[in-house]
């Protein structure tokens, strides 16, 4: 049987063997790591990978990781607008990332939480105070109406100002813009009333155009009616002129004889005294018959 001393040596050897085998660690994707020793961080960063730490007995090294992936973030604002003397709420939405030039500075100055430095820790430490200050300063220069009508231009100005202010810090901004603007109720109601007035004006313009088209159509119809009446009058005048030139006393006498001749052949005979042949009534009958014949020829 083994003595107590032998057993102690065996257990100690097993413990030393287990301790001498360093921990298995991993730097996940979109991260970098550094080895934290008892004397501080080792100088080199570790890219995404899996490996074992150095064997240790009394003090063991640790792996600290830092997230380097792009991140999206939103800042909410409620700002008093000096030009309008009103409060306005809005969001600033952005996409950013860790500036890899300053990775060593981040490890040296930002304490890890559970062996990891999150991008939120870096953002809140270096970028958030700057962004909130710059956004308030830029937005306060404008009136609410100017912001409502020039949001794209304002977003570009904010992006430029924030980017310049964050130059030389561990955070760089890739995109930034103003969003979800909540105007004061008095401004919203004024805009709604203005929109209603514009809609009424557009409706009046549309109605005027309809009436204009109807009036133009009626005018064209009247022009056409006058043209038709004019043509009819000219045609009647030509008929009258032709009759005035062609119906003479001799022609009327000749036509009178023709009428009498046809009357003689008809069973419906009416005998008229010879003196009545020169009456206006008979002459009118002859004239009417002539008008009908001329009309048929035309």
From TrEMBL:
Coiled-coil segments on the chain, per record: 187-232
InterPro entries the UniProt entry points to: Band_7, Band_7/SPFH_dom_sf
Pfam family, one: Band_7
SUPFAM superfamilies: Band 7/SPFH domain (SSF117892)
Domain Band: 80-209
The keyword Coiled coil is annotated on this UniProt entry: yes
Descriptive protein name: SPFH domain-containing protein
Organism the protein comes from: Microbulbifer celer
